[in-house]
Write a structure and sequence with these properties.
heterodimer, A: about 850 residues, alpha+beta, 6-stranded mixed barrel, 6-stranded mixed beta barrel, 28 helices, about 55% helix, globular, B: about 110 residues, 3-stranded antiparallel beta sheet, 4 helices
Chain lengths: ~850, ~110
């Protein structure tokens, strides 16, 4: 007798049982079993068992294994689900095309937004120390509120490092315009003056050259890879020399390139293409201990982000230590986290966030299309589902099947969407003046993960409801032929209303954004921006200043003499680029602290040329020395701030200098309409004064290109190497609104896309509704109903949806856009016409979509459909 | 018949021809008996599958027996094509062996 107690190892048996092809399992396991008992008698349990395990493992070869998807029932079913999914897609082509088209357009739009938003939202994130870097700035506490100013002092850097152990590193940064000599031409560039710590704090890495101490000599220059190519081509840049002429200093300095920086991501706020040691600043000796004037940026890197609170608490005492108690009372230091730098100076991440919400909305709309079409078509699938249930399908399996179908569809839609984005990318970048590319999303693994996640999200979002709904269909009803999609209708109506609300919201939003932008661009500016040409004519661009002054005066006189020039003037500033600097000023006899005001320089012709109106007093007297030194014109905001009720006769003090207020001008918008018009001081400088940067001409606009070429010819007679460059003032003003313009374009495009998706869905639904009502329509027709009655019957349903959409969409758009408009100081009121227009647009679109189908249904031959049953 | 067979394939085919009808464990035991060498069952199974796909053997599922843990055997039988192939291999071998000079071994 065999020992009954001995048995081959169970686990090996089970393993083989699980992994082996079912038709082989008996043979293999049976043979192994038999062999075990045979060996047991000869060699004992241990050896036999060992041999059993060994051979069991050896049996796990490819020919013996099940196909991978047979390992459990669910994965085995997956193959069947996929097959059915493809068959169904193919069987109902129109429906599949509507679905995939809607989804893929939605996917393309939202992908684009995500890429754009990703770029904006990850601005500056490539700096590994970003959370520990702060920009130092000061706040002035004035009676009118707190004014932040971001320029700080040169000696601050070492002082703050010595004062606080929490400061690991600190650097100064100052950008100065220089003209870099390349062969025989001078190219205007911004030279960044920064301390060596700059490269350690920020993640600008050295690619070639001296990486440990690139600023070892005062003439060392670190340049970006891009600039290395720009100036030296494919040649090795390190060790070569560049000459830079500083117009502000009237000096040329020769630099030697010591290091080349690696390319950094495009979404960087700082773009230090040419860096020179801060202490090599041409006027460094004069400012190195200057606490009286602030003009540079100071950045600190802390040991820990939370240390900022320690510093903020200690700052008041620090201010007192630098100056005195009196100044400490009205000045304080603050820290600006570096990840806020972009929002503070360059753009708005808020708009990007809004766009992400729009993207999600569009995706939702596309998903709703899918849900509605799938549930609406459940009638077609009811028999299939009933039969599956009769044959014993669990509802879990049915849900699985519909989810797989949704996933297949969303997979194709995503692929098509990516295709659309890839095709349109150059067009989009051009149209929106942005730079997005697939490569910016990150490493390929991340992109693939993102796309896979996207497919899953979209599939689950659009597939979960149909799966839930369809798997619940009752077999009995189907078999008895009384199946109706009753439960789905409520939900479907709800979803359509959601879709319409989103579309209404988008249309209203786009209209309001457009109105605000039009308002900003066409509102009365307080000056005439049309037909004004701004010619760049700064004496600083010439090497011989004395000569340049004379020649530019001649040029201006010649310009003025032209018949097509109505008026010409020289100035330091133009609206859109107004403030020359800030100063502290108080009226005579004023007790409180002086006020900080922007100032600018113009000549006596300026007010006339620009069409700025005096509300009181007089203009500057031409060529009057006295007016240059002792007179000022205020804008109304400044007069109000000083509390002057009369234009002339007042005196204001800057330090101990007395200035007579000779006139007051109407407020004019010299900045974006986002900002309130701030007080400004206007000083007179005669046309010969070297401070001026522009020649402002009021021109005859007819035949303007000829006129400009005449001016160009005269410019040539000046004998300068600088070319004739000019701008139209209205273009410069429009440039203030580039980000709003871009936002409008994006919102506009996505509005159109959302409407398109909504209409597509509507089209599909109309077909479905009409199909359901075929018999009713036919009978009505036979009895003698008018065609209009029948069309009305169909349109009735849809009008309820429009009403619902308007009721939800309009108020939410109103609330949301009211908040959005708050960022503009000069803003429109949201008017009823916008709502009416939205309602009209949406209603027209719906009617157009529906009535085509309705009329076709109403004019069809009723016999054709009555015969069927 | 110029079908190529590996040595193990040939051996097992011959064993099948000898036993008329047999299964895995029996082949392993017979192999050991005839050649004095042990062989693993998975190796036999793989060879059998290969021979079957070449059409040299056929198989059917036998009865379940208690000594195999209640599992049934798969019985294998050489087909007539299998017989032809084995025979032509043997014939070729015999013919070639006949051409080997029997007495003139060169000294090593």
């Amino acid at each position: 007798m065999r020992k009954q107690l001995s048995h081959p190892p169970r686990w090996a048996e089970r393993l083989l049982q699980w992994a082996c092809r079912p038709d082989y399992v008996d043979e293999v396991l049976g043979d192994l079993n038999e062999a075990y008992y045979w060996r047991l008698e000869e060699k004992g349990h241990r050896k036999a068992a060992f041999k059993f395990v060994f051979e069991a493992l050896l049996s796990l070869r490819f020919t013996h294994l099940k196909p991978f998807y047979h390992f459990n029932l669910n994965t085995m079913m997956l193959g069947s689900y996929l097959k059915i999914a493809f068959r169904n897609l193919y069987k109902r082509k129109a429906y599949s095309v509507i679905n995939i088209l809607g989804l893929s357009v939605g996917v393309a739009a939202s992908l684009m937004i995500f890429m754009y938003a990703w770029r904006v939202l990850t601005f500056d994130d490539f700096h590994t120390n970003e959370d520990r870097i702060f920009m130092l700035y000061k706040e002035r506490i004035t009676p009118n509120g707190i004014q932040p100013t971001y320029d700080t002092w040169v000696p601050m850097k070492s002082m703050i490092k010595e004062e606080y152990p929490q400061v690991v590193a600190s650097t100064r940064r100052y950008g100065m315009t220089g003209k870099v000599k390349k062969d025989d031409v001078y190219i205007e560039e911004e030279i960044t003056f920064a301390d060596p710590e700059f490269l350690q704090m920020f993640s600008f890495e050295v690619a070639r050259g001296n990486s440990t101490n690139p600023f070892s000599s005062p003439n060392a220059l670190v340049i970006s890879n891009q600039y290395a190519e720009k100036y030296f081509g494919s040649l090795q840049a390190v060790g070569r020399e560049l000459n830079v002429y500083y117009p502000g200093e009237d000096s040329t300095i020769r630099y030697e390139v010591t290091a080349v920086l690696k390319d950094w991501p495009k979404n960087s706020s700082l773009e230090p293409n040419m860096i020179v040691a801060f202490e090599s600043l041409p006027f460094y000796e004069g400012v190195k201990n200057l606490w009286g004037g602030s003009f540079i940026d100071n950045y600190v890197m802390l040991d820990d982000p939370t240390s900022q609170y320690v510093l903020l608490d200690a700052f008041p005492a620090f201010v007192e230590k630098i100056w005195d108690k009196e100044i400490a009372g009205r000045t304080n230091f603050k820290l600006l986290p570096f990840d806020e730098y972009y929002n503070t100076f360059l753009g708005s991440q808020q708009d990007a966030k809004i766009l992400v919400f729009i993207a999600l909305g569009i995706l939702l709309m596309a998903a709703i299309n899918f849900m509605n079409l799938s549930t609406a078509h459940s009638v077609h699938r009811a028999k299939e589902i009933g039969l599956r249930k009769v044959l014993g399908a669990f509802s879990g399996q049915l849900r699985g099947q519909f989810l797989v179908e949704a996933l297949v569809l969303s997979f194709f839609a995503t692929l098509a969407g990516i295709g659309i984005v890839a095709l349109c990318m150059p067009l989009i970048n051009d149209f929106f003046d942005i730079e997005i590319a697939f490569s910016q999303i990150g490493p390929p693994v991340l992109s693939v993960g993102f796309v896979a996640g996207f497919v899953l999200l979209l599939g689950l979002m659009s597939g979960s409801y149909p799966a839930f709904f369809l798997s619940k269909i009752s077999i009995l009803e189907v078999i008895r032929g009384i199946f109706k999609t009753k439960g789905g209708r409520q939900v479907r109506n709800g979803l359509v209303v959601v879709q319409f609300s989103l579309a209404v919201f988008m249309v209203t939003g786009a209209l309001i954004v457009r109105n605000q932008l039009t308002y900003m661009q066409s509102a009365k500016m307080g000056f005439e921006k049309d037909a004004v040409v701004i010619i760049n004519a700064s004496r600083r661009d010439f090497t011989d200043r004395e000569e340049a002054s004379r020649r530019l005066k001649t040029f201006r006189d010649e310009v003025k003499a032209q018949s097509f020039v109505k008026s010409a003037s020289l100035s330091y500033s133009i609206p859109s680029n107004w403030v020359a600097g800030f100063t502290f000023v108080r009226p005579e006899g004023w007790e409180g602290d002086p006020l900080r005001m922007g100032m600018s320089y113009v000549d006596a012709n300026y007010l006339e040329t620009m069409g700025i109106k005096l509300t009181g007093g007089r203009n500057f007297l031409p060529d009057s020395e006295g007016d240059q030194r002792g007179s000022v014109i205020l804008n109304e905001a400044a007069a109000k701030a000083f509390g002057f009720d009369k234009a002339e006769g007042n005196v204001i003090l800057i330090g101990e200098n007395r200035l007579n207020v000779v006139g007051v001008v109407e407020n004019f918008h010299y900045e974006s309409m986002r900002e309130e018009i701030k007080p400004t001081l206007i000083f007179h400088r005669t046309a010969e004064n070297p401070v001026h940067r522009y020649i402002v001409c009021k021109m005859e606009m007819a035949d303007i290109s000829n006129h400009l070429s005449v001016l160009d010819g005269q410019w040539g007679a000046l004998g300068t190497t600088n070319s004739f460059t000019y701008n139209f003032l209205d273009d410069s003003m429009a440039e203030l609104y580039t980000s709003e313009q871009r936002f409008l374009r994006l919102v506009g495009l996505f509005t159109i896309i959302s409407i398109l998706i909504a209409v597509l869905g509507l089209y599909g639904l109309t077909i479905f509704v009409i199909e359901r009502k075929r018999r009713e329509i036919s009978i009505r027709k036979v009895i003698g109903a008018e065609m209009s009655n029948i069309v009305l019957l169909i349109v009735r349903d849809f009008s309820a949806w429009i009403a619902g959409g308007l009721m939800i969409g309009l108020p939410s758009a109103y609330i949301f856009l009211r908040d959005w408009l708050d960022q503009f100081h000069y803003r429109i009121d949201i008017s009823w016409t916008v709502f009416l227009l939205t309602a009209a647009v949406i209603t027209t679109l719906v009617l157009l979509t529906v009535s085509y189908q309705a009329i076709r249904a109403a004019s069809a031959n009723p016999v054709k459909y009555l015969k069927e049953d | 018949m110029n079908l190529q067979l590996g040595v193990l394939e040939e051996m097992i085919l011959i064993l099948l021809l000898m036993k008329q009808e047999t299964y895995g464990v029996d082949i392993a035991q017979e192999y050991e008996k005839q050649l004095g060498q042990s062989i693993s069952l998975p190796a036999i199974h793989v060879v059998l599958k290969r021979l079957e796909s070449k059409g040299l053997v056929s198989s059917y599922m036998g009865e379940a027996t208690a000594e195999r843990g209640g599992r049934s055997k798969r019985m294998y039988k050489a087909s007539s094509k299998g017989f032809q192939v084995a025979k032509s291999l043997q014939d070729n071998r015999t013919r070639m062996w006949g051409l080997v000079p029997k007495l003139n071994f060169s000294p090593l």
